[in-house]
Amino acid sequence: MQTLASRGLHRLAFAALALALGLAFTAPAPAAPARARPLIVFMTDFGTLDDAVAICKGVMKTIAPGAEILDITHEVTPFSIAEGARLLGRTSQYYPAGTVFVTVVDPGVGTSRKSIVVHTGRDQYFVLPDNGLITQVARRDGIREVREIENPGWLLAGSASSTFHGRDIYSPVGAHLARGDDPRAVGPVIADVVRLAIPEAGADAAGIHGQVVALDGPFGNLVTNVDRDLFLGLGYRVGDAVRVSIGGTEQVLPYAATFGGVDVGKPLLFIDSRGLVSLAINQGNFAQQYGVVPPVSLAIARPVPR
User: Fold this and answer.
1) Within this chain, do residues 108 and 227 fall inside the same structural domain, yes or no?
2) Are 161 and 276 contained in the same domain?
3) How far apart are CA 262 and CA 239, in angstroms?
4) Domain carrying residue 233
5) Of 186, 214, 232, the domain-final residue
6) Residue 44: CB partners within 8 Å, gap ≥ 6?
7) In the predicted model, is pLDDT for residue 9 greater than 80?
8) CB under 8 Å to 283, separation ≥6 — which residues?
9) What mean pLDDT do residues 249-254 have?
10) Quick one: average pLDDT of 85-107?
11) H or E element, residue 246
12) What is the pairing mode between strands 249-254 and 125-129?
């Protein structure tokens, strides 16, 4: 016979076991998603020999101390709006919605050109001069809204240089956006932006007519505006010889899948990571060897019938 005391102990043990089993089979509550850290992506033609880039980053971090600041480059060819537009368009597609891009390539600094914030169809923000820098981004992603920067409360207090708008205007505005301030407060909506005329490659009976638009970093590869589909539409296959004319100088290059498709020191034509026709030398510098300085005309002849 069980005593009252032993029955009470059994009941307590059973209750403890039931509670333990209940806890074991109860799924933990999901953790709240971490809030993304504000992201500013910075590009200029300032170079890195002096303190200009560091000053701009200091302004940004003072206003938005929690923001992460990443660099595209500060080695845009000085005053080259077209190069800045190309690099901005190339890079921005790999960043998430909500990213704030601060871009300063501004040969018209201090003149009547506007300073603007562009909100794109990709839900990214671009803080820059209205001089065509946004051209390739706008072309690809579309524009939701453009506002002119007019709110003095968003500018760097106590500083009003006519030659350093990267510090006084673009950096503080980018930081205000990154920390979550209302974009509508920056200034009034404007109808549109300045856009660059972008040269287009085309094909005719003779072949493709395009342009060498840039060099690929320190390697000296030629970046063109001829895309993969236009080139392959001529009927070329890997291994074929391709007759090209660069600024009127003709060469015959092998079409290779990659640099190692030719011997070291030999030139080639290939499709680069952008999906564009490029000319290179395996472990060499095409631009230096052949004296090519973009922009320069490019022609690609149709292949000889097989």
Assistant:
1) no
2) no
3) 10
4) 202-301
5) 186
6) 52, 53, 56, 74, 76, 103, 104, 105, 166
7) no
8) 259, 264, 265
9) 95
10) 97
11) strand 241-246
12) unpaired
Asked if 85 and 131 touch (Cβ cutoff 8 Å), the reply is no
The packing angle between helices 52-63 and 171-178, to 10°, is 30
Q: How many residues does the chain have?
A: 306
Q: Of the candidates 167, 289, 121, 142, which has an alpha carbon nearest to the alpha carbon of residue 221? A: 289
Contacts of 293 (CB under 8 A, 6+ apart): 287
Of 148, 114, 121, 149, the residue nearest 137 (C-alpha)? 121
Query: What are the structure tokens assigned to 227, written together?
Result: 């895309």
What's the sign of the alpha-carbon dihedral 180, 181, 184, 189?
negative
Contact predicate 288/220, CB 8 Å: yes
Write the pLDDT tens digit of every residue in 204-233: 999 999 999 999 878 999 999 999 999 999
Domain boundary pick from 151, 186, 221: 186
Instruction: Quickly count: other Cβ atoms within 10 Å of residue 230's Cβ.
Output: 18
Angstrom distances, CA of residue 278 to CA of 6, 183, 267, 285, 291 = 88, 40, 11, 12, 16
CB 274 within 8 A of CB 223: yes
The position carrying tokens 């300045």 is: 194
**HEC sequence for 93-150:** CCCCCCCEEEEECCCCCCCCCCEEEEEECCCCEEEEECCCCCHHHHHHHCEEEEEECC
**H or E stretch covering 302:** none
Secondary structure (H, E, C), 176-244: HHHCCCCHHHHCCECCCCCCCCCCCCEECCCEEEEEEEEEEHHHCEEEEEEEHHHHHCCCCCCCCEEEE
Average pLDDT taken over every residue of the chain: 90
| Together in a domain, 161 and 243 | no
In a domain, 248, yes or no: yes
| Residues 274-305: tens digit of each pLDDT | 999 999 999 999 999 999 999 999 999 999 88
pTM of structure: 0.83
Number of compact structural domains in the chain: 2
